[in-house]
Design goal:
Number of strands: 9
Shape: elongated
Order of helices and strands: HEEEEEEEEHE
Strand content: 25-35%
Strand order of the largest sheet: 5-8-7-6-9
Distance between the termini: 77 Å
Helix content: 10-25%
Number of helices: 2
Radius of gyration: 27 Å
């Protein structure tokens, strides 16, 4: 009978120790900003757009904005959905963030490098379709936001979504009538 009591006591003590170890190693919680409503690029953040959420993080807490600092008056640079924690990369203090536009251009898949990735900087050229072939630079240092690698139709075209300075939109669009584009990737090193 004593062995059962002793064994039961050991089990209770070991369970208490295990609970303490698990509880002391649990991830820290932090207060983070979350969007009350959908936020769109170019929108100034107001206090009515925000709510504070207590969140447990094991990692990546630095990727979201802590509620310990005010973010009202900053600019949204990428869409944030209602109830989403606000990522650090979704806001900017720089008003120049408002001076960019997105343009979607169809480009022949055969003119896109297999190593091209979203987030890269490219130069865009328009090439004449008649001899003598001439290339004209129509966009320099454009950001590549996204592209559909599978193609969009039977013509083997791929849509490129480019980040373009507002002041260059008219020039770029006025040079797209021939639709014969070449992409030059920037290579470091």
């Amino acid at each position: 009978m004593r062995i059962r009591y002793l064994l039961g006591g050991c089990l209770v003590i070991s369970a208490s120790i295990a609970f303490y170890l698990v509880a002391s190693n649990s991830p820290e919680s932090a207060t983070m900003w979350a969007a009350k409503v959908n936020l769109v690029p170019g929108q100034l953040i107001s206090s009515n757009d925000l709510e504070i959420r207590r969140v447990r993080f094991e990692t990546q807490s630095h990727s979201y904005l802590s509620a310990e600092q005010s973010i009202t008056g900053l600019i949204i640079v990428r869409s944030v959905l209602a109830n989403e924690l606000i990522p650090t990369m979704a806001i900017s203090q720089d008003l120049a963030a408002l001076s960019k536009a997105l343009i979607v251009l169809p480009v022949g898949r055969e003119y896109i490098s297999s190593v091209l990735h979203s987030g890269e900087k490219i130069d865009l050229y328009s090439v004449s379709k008649e001899k003598p072939f001439k290339a004209k630079l129509i966009g320099k240092d454009l950001g590549l936001l996204a592209f559909n690698e599978k193609g969009i139709d039977f013509n083997n075209l791929v849509n490129l979504t480019l980040i373009v300075p507002i002041e260059e939109v008219g020039l770029l669009l006025s040079n797209t009538q021939e639709g014969n584009f070449r992409i030059v990737q920037h290579i470091v090193g």
